[in-house]
Structure formats: C-alpha cells, structure tokens
Amino acid sequence: MAAVSWLILLCTYPDFARWQAADFARHHEDYTRKVGRVVGPLLLLQLGGHLWLAIAGQTWPALAVVLACWALTALWSVPCHRRLQREGPASPALGSLIRSHAWRTALWTLLAMDSIRRAAG
C-alpha cells in the first residue's frame, strides 16, 4: 500500500488540477472505479493479514495503523472525492484530498518499514 500510495500522492492527485473541468466528473468517476479495483483488494488483504497477526499476538499497533488508514479514508478522503466529483478540479477539496492522502501515505510508509524490519528479523 505504501508504494501505491506514494504514486497516487506524487503523480495522480496533483494531476487532477490539470484535468479539464468540462470532463472532470467523468474522468474522476472512471479513475475512482478503476483504482478501486486495484486498491480495494489490497486494502482488504492488508486488513486481514494484520488482523490475523494481531490475533496471533504479534502486532496490535500495526493493526491500529491499518485501522487509522481506513478511518482517514472513510472520514476524510472519500468526502473529498465526493466533493471533487461535484465541484471539479478547482475545488478546495483537491487540496484537502492531497493532505488527507499525505497522512495515509505517511502511515502506510511507517507500516511498510515496520513490516520490512520484521521480515528481516
């Protein structure tokens, strides 16, 4: 999730501002549908894996980070996407979406670093 998140943060969301306002709603809807097909299963696998590890007594804090990412997504990022869909690329929601995603990217990066550390022993 960290790698996908960095790609979205550095490439995709900043490009939203360059999309034509007339076609923005259609392109944004296509984007969210397509990215959901990729990110949705990854999020579910990540949640399931960390839930399994937490139940096995290995890493409750990592599960808390995953849940924080889910909460940020549901409570901040999704409403920004909905507002962008209505208002277009000039909406202040774009800046808010980028800020919300920066927080999620930071958390997913910390989680990835922890996972690499654990895997390395």
Please provide a written account of the structure.
The chain is elongated, with a radius of gyration of 16 Å. The chain contains 4 helices and no strands. The chain has one domain. It has helices at residues 2-16, 21-55, 60-87, 93-120. The two termini are 21 Å apart. The longest helix is centred in the first third of the chain and has 35 residues, at 21-55. With 121 residues, the chain is an all-alpha fold. Helices cover 88% and strands 0% of the residues.
Summarize the structure.
This protein is mainly alpha-helical. It is built from 4 helices and no strands.
Which residues form runs of ≥5 with pLDDT under 50?
Answer: none
Strand content: under 5%
Structural class category: mainly alpha
Q: Provide a count of the helices.
A: 4
- H/E element order: HHHH
Task: Determine the N-to-C terminus distance.
Answer: 21 Å
Helix content bin? over 70%
Structure summary, number of beta strands: 0
Q: Please tell me the overall pLDDT.
A: 95
SSE layout and pairing:
Elements lengths: L1 H15 L4 H35 L4 H28 L5 H28 L1
Helix pairs in contact: 1-4, 2-3, 3-4
Keywords:
121 residues, elongated, 4 helices, 0% strand, mainly alpha
